[in-house]
Amino acid sequence: MTDGILGKAATMEIPIHGNGEARQLPEDDGLEQDLQQVMVSGPNLNETSIVSGGYGGSGDGLIPTGKSISCAGREVWVGPQRCLVYLREAGVRELDPLGSGRHPSHSTTPSGPGDEVARGIAGEKFDIVKKWGINTYKCTKQLLSERFGRGSRTVDLELELQIELLRETKRKYESVLQLGRALTAHLYSLLQTQHALGDAFADLSQKSPELQEEFGYNAETQKLLCKNGETLLGAVNFFVSSINTLVTKTMEDTLMTVKQYEAARLEYDAYRTDLEELSLGPRDAGTRGRLESAQATFQAHRDKYEKLRGDVAIKLKFLEENKIKVMHKQLLLFHNAVSAYFAGNQKQLEQTLQQFNIKLRPPGAEKPSWLEEQ
């Protein structure tokens, strides 16, 4: 029905005189009723627009002659008075020639407290990113200056020597740990071979009457070696576990503090250099404020640097004491266990494990928890 109405309206023409004014034609009552029915039912406002095509501006709040209403995808040309009435009844908004809608004037809704909170959070995040960017720039500049020999750096010779010694010690202990794990793997393979060989000798002693005594002696010897090997393997495992804890936990924790100290040292030197450059510049009102701000920031980074330097010194001291205590015990255990094993002294080997409170796990037993190993 709408297409028929619009089609009928679309065929209407408005004659134009030479002076550019539109001449009123007799109005079609049927078209008026049809358009009124469309306006009452409501056009599709999402597709409604008014395209400027007239010859003059609107006067007294009326829509100029020759404008079209796009309704349901089709343009309807109507007279000015009737167009204004229909638009007011339907609430159709008037659009500019480019198609951008001009809505009726309305009061702006005030922002609620949620908007204020969101703006506050966004401002805080922006400040964090800004500070991070400035700090990263200054530290990168300082690092490059040190690498190319143009900048100065703060050096604590005694502490730097201890840190370098710690890194070298850690590398050597990691090598010992790797070799200890390899020894454990070889001992386990040797035990499996000895166990299989003892079973083979025992089987042959039953099937070879003429060599029963000789096969029996060798079977008993392999079983004894296998038992002593399990005791030695338990001692070596305890040694490797202790070295692993010392390297991957105690030394690594100290080196993490060292990394924080080195980062704080770089920041301290970066802001120190920035403060020195500002101090050499002109002293005006703007520079004085920047100098005071740089002085406060420099002091904060100086306090952080000195605190971490003290933490590193304390941790290095405790690490050295702990390392000596742990390694004294573990090296004594390793020596006694290996000597007793290769001497064939089963009693001394068992006493060594009892001395260091090492409990052997029976075959097939589950691995104890970390707390049980301590």
Fold blueprint:
Blueprint (H helix, E strand, L loop, with lengths): L1 H9 L18 H13 L7 E3 L16 E4 L2 E4 L2 H11 L22 H35 L9 H51 L4 H69 L4 H59 L2 H10 L14 H4 L1
Antiparallel strand pairs: 1-2, 2-3
- The helix content, as a percent range, equals 55-70%
Question: What are the secondary-structure elements, in order, as H or E?
Answer: HHEEEHHHHHHH
- Strand-residue fraction? under 5%
Report the strand count.
3
Which secondary-structure class do the elements indicate?
A: mainly alpha
- What overall geometry do the principal axes of the alpha carbons give? elongated
InterPro entries: AH/BAR_dom_sf, AH_dom, Arfaptin_fam
Domain AH: 154-354
Pfam families: Arfaptin
Region (Disordered): 96-117
Structure description:
With 374 residues, this protein is mainly alpha-helical. The protein has nine helices and three strands, in the order ααβββααααααα. It has helices at 2-10, 29-41, 80-90, 113-147, 157-207, 212-280, 285-343, 346-355, 370-373, and strands at residues 49-51, 68-71, 74-77. It has a three-stranded antiparallel beta sheet with strand order 1-2-3. Helix 1 crosses helix 2 (29-41). The protein is elongated and about 110 Å long.
